[in-house]
Structure formats: structure tokens, C-alpha cells
Amino acid sequence: MDKKIRVAFIYKASNQFYNKEHFDNTTYYFAMHALKRNKNLEVDYFPAEKSFDATKLKGKYDIIMLGNHNSSTPDELIGIKQLDIPVIARCGDFHNAKKYNTIKFHEKYKIDYYYNFMSENYFYKFYPKDFKYKPIILGVEPNFYQNLKPFKDRIKDRILVTGALGKKNLKSKLANRILNPKRSGWYFYKLRTMCNQLPHVDHSGMIGKKYVNDNFASHLSQYQGAIAATTFYPTIKYWETSASGCLTFMEITEQNDGAYLGYKDGETAIFINEKNYEKKFELFLNDIDNPKWEKIANNGREFTMNNLSNDKAVESLVKLFKSLI
Fold first, then answer.
1. Which CATH entry fits the domain spanning 142-307: 3.40.50, 3.30.360, 2.20.130, 2.40.160?
2. Coil vs helix vs strand at 89
3. Residue 156 belongs to what H/E stretch?
4. Which of 10, 23, 235, 276 is the most buried (most CB within 10 A)?
């Protein structure tokens, strides 16, 4: 049996994404559960806030993982540059690299490799070409996607959309265009917002900061059909929706580069864009009892659970670790 890879995971415990009670607990379950499940890894956790003495890791670990390269990592990693241990950092919201000057952390934390679920193409739109990045499609914790409502028992005459939306009134749209360019709901979620204006689409999910149902998976599984649409890159919502056994209407375009996920139109999902989304919805709603919809939904769920679960994400990380040590 190969020797386990020793991983030191450094993070800020105060960061809301490391709280399992937070409504978006995908980061928590990936970091605190999925990593530990992998038989090739031995993971120790080091929560810290202002500073962390990294020198105490010398000779004890093969890999250092950072919760993120800014908001989830202690402000100072003492002695990190003196260590000969590869540093891997999750990198979020690539489009905010300039806004928050996140590139400075590359040298500050001696980062060797970055990862997240977005594509390489999207990463290199905002980061230097000599930075190393690997897509790791995390977010689906398998236990949450078991024993969900059967497809035949779900709401079938309406389609669910979840998540942030652009505001509909003209005043808000103009204000965002002037005061908040490239930051508004219309900018990031244009098609999702357009879908929500249709009479047969329901938008729901949360009351305050809690889901209507027990969790996101159980909420999604109330519907046969659900929409996953983001303008510039696919989000975790895509594979969460598919894992929930929904017929997933996915925005997959050249602009959002969604093909890297591996879904196939008409086989594991229904691809939509700004030109065809209404027609695609009508095909489903006008032939609602056709067994092909359940077949596509089941194929999508199987593909997701076999290829895009947290366990598969960790396996991809293990391959990366082995290439660095």
C-alpha cells in the first residue's frame, strides 16, 4: 500500500463557508468530509485568523492546502517561503482578481497551484499565464443526494429556477449599468432572469437564509424540471441540480465554456441559450408524460454522481498532489 499523502489544511474558521450551518455548505463538506474520506490522504486542519506559524509544518507534511488565497486564509503565514512544501490554494470569483488585488497572494503565500470548479479558460482571463490551475469540480456531497422524491411524484407542469436574479424594473437596470457595471444580476444571470419572467417558471428556494425544504437537494427534487443558467461560467448549481434527479435545463454556450463539464445535450441534460430557451421549455411542457424526460434526468444524475461528486473531485486533487511531491 502506498504511503498516505500528508496534507495540512490551513483556513479561517470564522469564514462562513466553513460553517456547516451556512446555507451554502458545499465548501464545508468538501474540505471537512470529502478530503478525509479519501484513503490516499491524511489530513490535519489548522484554523487560524490573523496569523499562522507555518514553520511548524516542516518535515511533517507533503502538501499545504489553503482554504482560499485571500478571504479564507490567515492574513499572515509566518515562514511559508522558507518551506519546501507545495502550496495549493482554492481560488474563487476569478473576475474579482483586479478588484481585490488577489494576484499579490501568489508570492505572499508561495502558491504553486490553484484549483476550483471553473474552467481553465475562465481562470486565465484574469490571472497570468504562468500561474498553474486545475479545474476540480467539487460541490456534490453524495449523501445529500440519496432517497430523494421519485421523478414521477414531482411537480411536472412547472419548471424551477433558483438563485440570484437581475432586477426587472428599468430604474434598477439603469442604476446597475452606471454604478455597478459587470456586477449586477443581469450581467451574471441574464438568461436565468429571462427564464424567471415566464409564467410556467417558479423561483423559490429560501426563506431568509434557510431553504424551504431540508436542504437544496430536497428542494430541487420537488420538481421534474429545473434551470441552471449563468452567463460566464457554470456554477455548482449545474451539477447539484442534475444530481437531484431533475431534468436540468443548462445554459451551455461558447461564452460560458460549459462543455468542459461533460454533459451531453438530449442525453444527460437539455442545453439552452437566449435564443432557444422558450422553445426547449415548451417541448417539455407540451409532452410532459414522455418517458424520455425521466431517462435524460436519470442519465444526468448517473453521470454527475459517477464523475462530478466530491469524492471524484478529491481523486483529481490526489493526482495533482502526486505530481507535485
1. 3.40.50
2. strand
3. strand 155-161
4. 10
